[in-house]
UniProtKB/TrEMBL annotation:
Keywords of the record: DNA-binding, Transcription, Transcription regulation
This protein's name: Putative transcriptional regulator
Cytoplasm among keywords: no
Protein family membership: Belongs to the BlaI transcriptional regulatory family.
Coiled-coil stretches noted in the UniProt entry, renumbered to this chain: none
Species: Desulfosporosinus orientis (strain ATCC 19365 / DSM 765 / NCIMB 8382 / VKM B-1628 / Singapore I) (Desulfotomaculum orientis)
Chain ranges passing through the membrane: none
Amino acid sequence: MTNSSFRISDAEWQVMKVLWEKSPLTASIIVEYLKLETSWSPKTIQTLIARLVKKGALGVNKGVSLNQYYPLVSQEECMREETDSFLKKVYGGSLHLLIANFVKNENLSSKEIQELKNLLDEKMK
């Protein structure tokens, strides 16, 4: 996604999660997975799949009897993109403000505080 940045909606994110777990999958299998988690109609899910293909987030293997879909972007890439977008929108791009707000307003356990310290210590190396 770094080359061609695009946004994935919350609904599209649900489709991507299915395919990040297992792929390639046909649209009917994606529908079956999402019917367990959502109240969406099969037509809605197929529309989401088509939008993700158009955006370049999903690829289609048309060499088989049924189209099979697979992710063209990793979950990590999408998480980075979402984090960057959130950081810019809510905190004006300031990671410091985000972390300060998080630390001040969350009830962190001693273990979580230690894990954060360890992450920062690793970053310093």
